[in-house]
Design a protein that fits this description.
With about 600 residues, this protein is an alpha+beta fold. It has three domains: about 130 residues, no CATH class; about 220 residues, Gamma-adaptin ear (GAE) domain (Immunoglobulin-like); about 180 residues, von Willebrand factor, type A domain (Rossmann fold), CATH 3.40.50. About 30% of the residues lie in helices and about 20% in strands. A hairpin with a 4-residue loop joins strand 2 and strand 3. The longest helix is centred in the first third of the chain and has 20 residues. It is globular. The chain starts with 6 loop residues before the first helix and ends with a helix.
């Protein structure tokens, strides 16, 4: 979408592009809660105002943080009136003028191939994404079962954030780059914690769909117990680092080095670290070093240079061999691959990489993938590697994101609680007429695959949340039903209860394996009208807002009455419990400005 812009706007956009560059290199500017006076994430709720949450939920200690209510926040007018990138433009312009090396020509040479000053958006260039084919509503009478693999990847959200901060409006994202399930799973939720010996807690909630008056919105949430990494089993980690020529950009190798240095600072003497690099060939930089040899590991990271072609498959083979050499029985054995995904030597196609990783994962070594860079990232290859390697995929666009993935969520990133996790929802045709799973297009499975333990599925780490949303159409409307009339309300007569109030709506089946097991276990959770609420929890409301934004960003044919104004109004009225939710609110505002 071409836009007519004035010379002043071009200058402003170039200043913004320079600020993005500075963010990547120094981590000094954040699009979220780190801005001095413009960040709603620093706002304190006035005394006496407490955001309301569902009474049956309770935050685990690890999730406690200041609660933010934008409705009463004194900074809200500032948040609404200006964006930090533009507000800081004068000082940024002075800095550029004072540094002859960082002139317009300097950052043009870096950003020129990825930032289109005429349109004001990041040009996807040679970025690649797997095809996404959105599905519509399914008839319960014909297809009562909906089956999919669990997903805890978050890459799509942070990649989307990168593009919004780079100037993309709501309709400017590369085709197939928006995966709504990864947007939902980027955030933490106040879900029920595991009970007894169950590996995860399950939360269900239903309320009226915000963007479609003809449907209800079902939220399914899974939550695993967080683990203090210092008390976790020993880790055998192999850092597999791409040092090819395509990584020679400030948002790639330098950010990669800082990211792994953060991780290194949290390792202990019981851990083992090896480093393998690959370009035209692969090299072993460190082998089996104790995790508390922090200085040695950091020096090895800091001495890396980028150059050459990208023989990723050779590096993968070497990394797995090292992981097997130092394999810790009962421990966490994992390869962590950091790359832009631009593999151009050896095995390079998605199918070739899938076959390679599918063989290697049988060793008991898991694979996590961290994506870096702009302009030529191969998201499709990185997603395939993580999915088939029994691991997770995150995209790193800043030091702050490195800290989130590798420090704050270290247990979730490195410690697998369950593998091959599959969900199957069976809908009751007496209550539900049609349904539509939102997102998870690349995770759908055949109904018969649910109980086939040879079929690969997703992995869930310590402290992970998994969120799935369904739009459902009921066989009878729920409008006009007062709480006192509900079957499950106190003293309600049940003799004339309707199917919606007297029967189960659906049953959620979850199959999973322990990390070292080959046979799956199954848990079933029936859902009835007790999960319905005309006044849903803040978690449900936030997930609905994220999904609505995702429908707009992906230009979904099922977006109904969704709009940016509606998403903004929802977020403005709800409590935003942490900096990441507050940042999402800012991104919605920025995406609207970029249009």
């Amino acid at each position: 979408m071409k836009k007519e812009i004035t010379k002043t706007k071009i200058i402003t956009k170039k200043i913004m592009a320079w600020l993005i560059f500075s963010t990547i290199v120094t981590g000094g500017l954040s699009a979220c809660g780190n801005k001095d006076d413009n960040s709603a994430a620093q706002t304190e709720v006035p005394a006496g105002e407490t955001p309301v949450t569902a009474p049956e939920y309770a935050y685990p200690d690890s999730q406690e943080s200041p609660q933010i209510n934008f409705e009463s926040a004194s900074e809200l007018p500032q948040a609404e009136s200006g964006n930090a990138y533009y507000d800081m433009a004068p000082s940024a312009e002075q800095n550029v003028a004072q540094d002859s090396e960082r002139s317009e020509a300097y950052y043009d040479s870096y950003l020129g191939s990825i930032y289109d000053y005429d349109t004001g958006v990041i040009d996807p260039g040679s970025e690649e994404y797997s095809d996404i084919s959105e599905t519509g509503f399914a008839s319960v009478a014909r297809q009562p079962l909906s089956t999919f693999s669990a997903d805890v990847d978050t890459a799509s959200y942070s990649n989307l954030r990168r593009m919004i901060n780079g100037g993309c409006g709501i309709g400017d994202f590369p085709e197939d780059s928006v995966r709504i399930e990864e947007m939902l799973n980027y955030f933490s939720y106040n879900y029920n914690m595991p009970k007894r010996n169950e590996p995860f807690g399950v939360t269900t909630e239903i309320s009226a769909c915000p963007w479609n008056p003809e449907t209800e919105l079902l939220m399914i949430g899974l939550k695993t117990q967080d683990i203090d990494y210092s008390k976790a089993p020993a880790s055998n980690l192999v850092f597999l680092l791409d040092v090819s020529g395509s990584m020679a950009e400030p948002d790639k190798l330098p950010l990669l080095q800082k990211s792994f240095s953060m991780l290194t600072e949290n390792l202990t003497g019981k851990d083992r670290v090896s480093i393998v690099t690959y370009a035209g060939s692969d090299d072993i930089v460190l082998e089996g070093v104790k995790g508390n040899n922090t200085q040695t590991i950091k020096e090895a990271l800091n001495n890396l240079d980028a150059g050459g072609s990208t023989n990723g498959s050779a590096g993968i083979i070497t990394a797995y061999e090292l992981a097997e050499t130092y394999f810790i029985k009962g421990g966490n054995n994992r390869v962590i691959l950091a790359t832009d995904g631009d593999l151009n030597v050896g095995l390079t196609t998605e199918s070739e990489l899938e076959e390679l990783i599918s063989r290697k994962k049988e060793s008991g070594v898991f694979l996590s993938v961290l994506g870096f860079g702009t302009g030529n990232i191969k998201d499709n290859k990185m997603e395939t590697l993580a999915d088939k390697g029994n691991g997770n995929y995150a995209y790193i666009d800043s030091e702050r994101e490195s800290s989130k993935v590798l420090v704050q969520e270290m247990g979730a990133t490195l410690l697998t609680i369950c593998k091959d996790v599959k969900l199957q929802v069976e809908f009751n045709p007496a209550v539900v007429k049609e349904y539509r799973l939102i997102g998870y297009e690349n995770r759908r499975m055949a109904a018969e695959d649910f109980k086939d333990d040879t079929k690969d599925a997703g992995e869930i780490g310590a402290g992970h949340s998994v969120t799935a949303l369904y739009e459902i159409k009921l066989t009878e409307p729920l409008t006009g039903i007062a709480t006192s009339e509900l079957k499950y309300a106190e003293n309600h007569p049940t003799s004339d209860a309707s199917p919606a109030r007297s029967k189960e709506w659906l049953t959620i089946g979850i199959r999973f394996k322990k990390p070292s097991a080959d046979t799956a276990s199954q848990l079933d959770y029936p859902v009835d009208y007790r999960s319905y609420s005309p006044d849903p929890s803040s978690d449900w409301e936030f997930a609905a807002a994220v999904a609505e934004f995702g429908l707009l960003a992906s230009q979904s044919s099922n977006k109904g009455e969704a709009s940016l104004d509606h998403v903004r109004s929802l977020l403005k009225e709800m409590p935003l419990y942490d900096e990441y939710r507050a940042e999402f609110y800012e991104l919605v505002i920025q995406a609207d400005r970029n249009d």
